[in-house]
Amino acid sequence: MAERKFKGFGGLVLSADVRGAEEDPSVLLLHGGGQTRHVWQETAEALVKAGRHVISLDLRGHGRSARSEDGRYEFDACVEDLRAVLAQLASRPVVVGAGLGGWIALTAIGEEGAHLASGLVLADAPPEIDLRTAAALAASIRSAPAQTEHVDPVFGEVIDVEKSSERISVAASGLKVPVLFVRGALSSFGNRDAANRFVEKVATAEFAEIEDAGHLAVFDRSDAFSAVLLDFLERRVPRMMPDYKQGSDARTLRDALGCFATGVTVVTTMSAQGEPVGLTANSFTSVSLDPPLLLVCIAKSSSSLEALEISERFAVNVLHIGQQPVSNTFAMPGEDRFSQTPWEEGQYGSPLISGALANFECIKSDLHDGGDHVILIGKVERAKYEPRRDPLLYFKGKYRRLHFA
Question: Fewer Cβ in 10 A, N or C end of the chain?
């Protein structure tokens, strides 16, 4: 076991125990208010034995993490701490949060999306939080620091769970990663009906109860909790990498190819009738600077292919982060695409998407057969770009944005 330091919100130093092999899938453990990372001892050991890389983090003002000199212990600061820690990890972990730690994780991941984590486990942290539950938890946190020297007493006075209850509930509806909500069957926090409503509302969620256990059953019945947790991980976030072999599931190959992050473009041309034609494509590549060549791959099933094969000129329009609606429009069949999108005729006659990150006007250089696609190579006649915008990205079947560390 080693200790690792992270930079949290405002540069505050956060401390964590790290166990297991770094190449194994990661699990980040986040304790509740008034606790420290040491409460995860048994669960962490079980995870390492099951082939997981485990990071047990102390919240700000807890354990070996630094105390805030200006008393910044509000809920938002804790959420920003977690986002900062996740940004410093080499891979997206499954985040396991107990009590307050669960609500912090839920908010960070639900608001920011799946790029922060590969899964979420809520241990006695009801995703549907009412004011009574929030008040009860806040009271338990306020009383906890008086019982231990390892927690800044100011934390319990500042943390504003009640004010954040609506935010937590809204964030729960935005969860896209695999989610497990675990509660002790005898816990006074939340109830089975609320858990079932959450599972019905969030398609990626499931629910498990630990019998004969109350609040924080994760620690009182760590053996039972570890069994539930490991079952969830092996089913929803498995250790073994998906493996494609020729002739096997094409979806696996598609997912593997989706691991290559790309920009998003709209390829345009004028039809023989003088009408603008275009489609969304992310298979765009720079080929050569001398001569200036690029290529795009067009599906043979595309309704725009015929016009691109006939026309001597075309354009590639690279989209910026604010042009996701443009990408969607040109990806949908049967849409009157150009009536919904600002565009102009380029210097060489091809339609150009207005305000794009970059526009490349090309003369057709060559066409090649590429299986179920046609490879269209163009010689760049003119290019212009906007240096003050960021690209719209596509990764693993979803739109993304640049992350600046």
Answer: C
Average pLDDT over residues 137-161: 73
Pairing outcome for strands 119-123 and 313-318? unpaired
Q: How many angstroms separate the CA atoms of 161 and 135, rounded?
A: 7
Give kind and range of the element (H or E) at residue 277: strand 276-281
Report yes or no: 30 and 95 within 8 Å, Cβ to Cβ.
Answer: yes
Nearest to 316 by CA among 366, 269, 270, 373: 269
For residues 230 and 46, the answer to whether their CB atoms sit within 8 Å is: yes
Q: Are strands 119-123 and 94-98 parallel, antiparallel or unpaired?
A: parallel
Work out the mean pLDDT of the chain and round it to a whole number: 89
CB 93 within 8 A of CB 24: no
CA–CA distance, 10 with 203 (Å, rounded to integer): 35
- Up-side HSE of residue 315: CA atoms within 13 Å toward CB? 31
377 touches 295 (CB < 8 A): yes
pLDDT score of 293 more than 70: yes
